[in-house]
């Protein structure tokens, strides 16, 4: 049976907390695109900063979401 996709933070190839890399893997897109969108949100009123900060604390690391991976 297929296990549903989970959102997680990456540990390999991360720049800050690994949130953008995890979001990119979840949506199967390039992490650079996610980083550009996140930066645009940051400069367009600061919501990107708060959203990233919340995700960094709430979203689990990949090793926690998929034990033994």
Automatic annotation (TrEMBL):
<keyword id="KW-1003">Cell membrane</keyword>
<dbReference type="GO" id="GO:0005886">
    <property type="term" value="C:plasma membrane"/>
</dbReference>
<dbReference type="Pfam" id="PF04024">
    <property type="entry name" value="PspC"/>
</dbReference>
<dbReference type="InterPro" id="IPR007168">
    <property type="entry name" value="Phageshock_PspC_N"/>
</dbReference>
<keyword id="KW-0472">Membrane</keyword>
<keyword id="KW-0812">Transmembrane</keyword>
<protein>
    <submittedName>
        <fullName>PspC domain-containing protein</fullName>
    </submittedName>
</protein>
<dbReference type="InterPro" id="IPR052027">
    <property type="entry name" value="PspC"/>
</dbReference>
<keyword id="KW-1133">Transmembrane helix</keyword>
<feature type="transmembrane region" description="Helical">
    <location>
        <begin position="36"/>
        <end position="59"/>
    </location>
</feature>
<feature type="domain" description="Phage shock protein PspC N-terminal">
    <location>
        <begin position="5"/>
        <end position="62"/>
    </location>
</feature>
């Amino acid at each position: 049976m297929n296990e549903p996709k989970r959102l997680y933070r990456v540990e390999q190839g991360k720049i800050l907390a690994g949130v953008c890399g995890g979001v990119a893997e979840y949506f199967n897109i390039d992490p650079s695109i996610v980083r550009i969108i996140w930066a645009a949100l940051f400069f367009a009123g600061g919501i990107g900063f708060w959203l990233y900060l919340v995700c960094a604390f709430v979203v689990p690391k990949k090793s926690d979401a998929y034990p033994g991976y």
